[in-house]
């Protein structure tokens, strides 16, 4: 399925079929050694979105990765994160070794609240860094967790999914500790204000990677969906972030525009309509006002 000219994989199975890879999937969870997938997956992956999460540990090799507007070369001791909805693409520069795990929010939600993934784990937030460079001892520690999960696949157990879920939570919590140690803590406490704010962010994210003919654009429309007054929503967002609710909406729209300009060959006009601007001129003015560059100037930088 394609939306805005970009492949959308709703399930892990759809993604595996596209890259011509066979691997067991356990009710929304899959894990594999990178050496195995590297035998068949394409060297270059065009831009795509997915409706599941991903965590990858690279032990060796090199990968040119693009996620949203961020571009990085991932290599030895890199830990990569990706949540739902991001536009990402990659090119395999040198053969990879390591591990990659995919899981859905529903798989995680059987024991934990699925709407907590983007809250409890900072690396799954929209504007988080896509990867970390690990110390060698952290790499070894996470490698052992991945290997323990893989060993379970080969065992004849009746409760495999529960064990996978437990190990996955350990992997995420250990990764969170490493992430916060390196990049700092950004805890979000679940009081009523933060719940509203997180609901607002989730609604913003839901506007992308969809084939809906209409999307929410104004603070009033978002507030209505959240059953609050626009003034109250703006007050909460401003109090927690220092930015207005409208600026938060616009920042995500700019991030999406940058991703499409960087990772696709879609024309400025096509991107304008993808982002639900009334016409391309409005998009050009919006981009120029927010970034100081027109869409074509940004694409050519």
Structural class: alpha+beta
- Overall form: globular
Task: List how many beta strands DSSP finds.
Answer: 9
Query: Rounded to an integer, what's the Rg over CA atoms?
Result: 20 Å
SSE topology string? EEHEHEEEEEHHEHHHHHHHHH
- Give the count of helical stretches: 13
Q: Overall mean pLDDT score? A: 90
The N- to C-terminal Cα distance equals 31 Å
Percent of residues in helices: 40-55%
Q: Describe the oligomeric state of these chains in a short phrase.
A: single chain
Describe this structure in words.
The chain has 301 residues and is of the alpha+beta class. 47% of the residues lie in helices and 21% in strands. The protein is built from 13 helices and nine strands. It has helices spanning 12-18, 34-37, 105-109, 117-120, 136-153, 160-183, 192-205, 219-226, 230-241, 245-263, 268-274, 280-291, 295-300; strands spanning 2-3, 6-9, 29-33, 44-50, 53-67, 70-74, 78-82, 88-103, 131-133. Strands 1, 2, 3, 4, 5, 6, 7, 8 and 9 form a nine-stranded mixed beta sheet that branches. A hairpin with a 2-residue loop joins strand 5 and strand 6 (70-74). Helix 7 packs across helix 9. The longest helix has 24 residues, at 160-183.
